[in-house]
């Protein structure tokens, strides 16, 4: 009993002296590191640092994929720094496609707000898990796996993905292959695709080499 009380007093005194850092709003002028950005001085932090309004408006989907991804990662929303959390907005025109991509640094939870979205991912064991999602439905995409979203039918769709990192990263497979300077001979050799197809896709997506 005595030991118990001593322990409790010790615990109380140690926690009351602990300085708790509630947040570390990013100072975006500092360097981004694996541990995040340096903190803005607390005296400079305002309510606006914890609010992001950049996902309120629909994005322009007049482009090759008839869709747009608008990120609210730490670089756009400094209040997320160190919180292992971020979000984005997916606008899909009719039949719009978010091509196969991965987020190397985060799990994703997709929340559908409008339309019907065919979403899926491919596991490391090359098994495809896919589903048509309706308004109010959610799907999870485990970290690092290739996944996609497609608006089904003639309706546009809207969804908000939430990520388990302030900086999830985004790598789009087609852009990595056909919008980069990965040379056509090497793309052909490493993917087994026809060279004419590789050149055609590079022409469309702007790749070189
Ligand atoms: C903090 O605010 C002071 C005074 O407005 C300013 O001089 C300083 O550059 C600010 N620091 C950062 C990191 O924003
Ligand atoms: C959307 O983007 C396209 C292509 O860049 C442009 O022609 C069009 O004016 C834009 N629409 C709006 C409403 O900004
Ligand atoms: C691709 O381009 C980057 C910068 O533009 C350059 O540093 C890199 O060496 C290039 N890679 C190849 C394989 O040409």
For the biggest sheet, the summary is:
5 strands, antiparallel
> Strand-and-helix sequence, N→C?
HEEEEEEEEEEHHH
Give the mean pLDDT: 92
Rg measurement, Å? 22 Å
Approximate strand percentage? 25-35%
Annotated CATH topology of the domain at 47-55 and 64-169: Jelly Rolls
Q: What would CATH call the architecture of the domain at 47-55 and 64-169?
A: Sandwich
* Share of helical residues: 10-25%
Helix- and strand-based class?
alpha+beta
Task: Tell me how many strands there are.
Answer: 10
What's the end-to-end separation, in Å? Answer: 76 Å
Account of the 3D structure:
This protein has 209 residues and is an alpha+beta fold. Among the domains are: 47-55 and 64-169, Jelly Rolls, CATH 2.60.120.10; 176-205, no CATH class. Helix content is 20%, strand content 27%. The protein has 4 helices and 10 strands; from the N terminus they run H-E-E-E-E-E-E-E-E-E-E-H-H-H. The protein has helices at 2-17, 173-178, 184-191, 195-205; strands at residues 67-72, 86-92, 97-102, 108-114, 117-122, 128-133, 138-141, 146-151, 157-163, 171-172. The chain has a 5-stranded antiparallel beta sheet, with no helix packed on it. Strands 6-5-8-3-10 form a 5-stranded antiparallel beta sheet. Helix 3 crosses helix 4 (195-205). The longest helix is centred in the N-terminal third of the chain and has 16 residues, at 2-17. The chain is globular and about 60 Å long. Residues 8-17 have low confidence and may be disordered. One 2-acetamido-2-deoxy-beta-D-glucopyranose is lined by residues 181, 209.
């Amino acid at each position: 009993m005595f030991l118990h009380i001593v322990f409790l007093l010790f615990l109380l005194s140690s926690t009351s002296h602990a300085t708790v850092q509630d947040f570390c709003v990013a100072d975006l002028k500092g360097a981004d590191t694996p541990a995040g950005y340096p903190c803005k001085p607390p005296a400079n932090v305002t309510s606006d640092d914890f609010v992001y309004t950049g996902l309120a408006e629909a994005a322009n989907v007049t482009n090759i994929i008839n869709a747009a991804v608008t990120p609210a990662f730490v670089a756009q929303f400094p209040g997320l720094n160190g919180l292992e959390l971020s979000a984005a907005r997916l606008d899909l025109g009719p039949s719009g496609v978010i091509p196969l991509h991965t987020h190397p640094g985060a799990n994703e939870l997709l929340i559908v707000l409008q339309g019907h979205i065919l979403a899926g991912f491919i596991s490391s064991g090359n098994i495809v898990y896919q589903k048509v999602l309706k308004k109010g439905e959610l799907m999870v995409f485990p970290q690092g796996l290739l996944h996609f979203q497609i608006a089904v039918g003639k309706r546009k769709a809207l969804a908000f993905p939430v990520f388990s990192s302030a900086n999830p990263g985004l790598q789009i497979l087609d852009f990595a292959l056909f919008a980069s300077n990965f040379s056509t001979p090497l793309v052909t050799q490493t993917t087994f695709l026809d060279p004419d197809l590789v050149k055609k896709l590079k022409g469309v997506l702007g790749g070189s080499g």
